[in-house]
Amino acid sequence: MARKLKVFRTAAGFHDAYVAAPSRKAALAAWGADVDLFARGVAEEVTDPALMEAPLAAPGEVVKRSRGTAEEQLAAAPAPRKKTMAAKRKPAAAPRPSREALETAEAALERARAAIENERRALAARLAALEREQRALEQRWRTERAALEDAREAARTDYDAAVARWRDG
Questions:
Q1: Residue, of 100 and 78, whose pLDDT is higher
Q2: Which of 3, 10, 28, 125 could form a disulfide linkage to 22, CB 3.0–4.6 angstroms apart?
Q3: pLDDT exceeds 80 at position 25
Q4: Nearest to residue 7, comparing CAs of 52, 69, 50, 67?
Q5: Start-to-end C-alpha separation, the chain
Q6: pLDDT score recorded for residue 115
């Protein structure tokens, strides 16, 4: 029997990272933590039903929720430091990387998802047709069996009567 899932939370930057897992160890593995965050007091079990809903919908996956609005996060950020002369002399910026390969891979993944979904629907339709065929076969068998059993009983009655006449006579 599967173990009951619990929801755990830890801080991840400006977000809280939630995960539905059967144990603290499984939660640490989902977060990729190599230290016990629970022992350090930076991770905890969540019991608020509103906070548990999204993680329980995707067990084992890390669900991040923002801890506040962008304005609240900017207000909490430290004030910018003054730039020194060394910081001003930055090397020329490298050209921005192309997203083309990423977009191609994402499109391929989406096409594959759509194709498998179409195959699942077709398979479900075939299963439904087979189930209807099986129900029809079973109904045909019940009807045929009833007729054959009636014929057998009639033959048995005739046979028993013939045997009785033969003995008597």
A1: 100
A2: 3
A3: yes
A4: 52
A5: 72
A6: 93
Check whether 99 has a pLDDT greater than 80: yes
Two structure tokens written together for 140: 């045909």
Strands 43-46 and 63-66, how do they pair?
Answer: unpaired
Given a contact cutoff of 8 angstroms between Cβ atoms, the answer to whether 117 and 111 are in contact is: no
- Summarize pLDDT for 29-48 with one digit per residue, the tens: 999 988 999 998 889 999 98
Q: Under the phi-then-psi rule, with left for phi > 0, alpha for psi from -120 to 50, and beta for the rest, what region is 60?
A: left
Residues in the chain: 169
Q: What are phi and psi of 58, to 5 degrees?
A: -135, 75
The answer to whether 38 touches 6, Cβ cutoff 8 Å, is no
Tokens of 72: 């609240």
Would the pTM of this model clear 0.70, i.e. be above it?
A: no
Q: Are 25 and 32 in contact (CB under 8 A)?
A: no
Closest-CA residue to 8 (of 63, 83, 68): 63
Tokens of 91: 């090397």
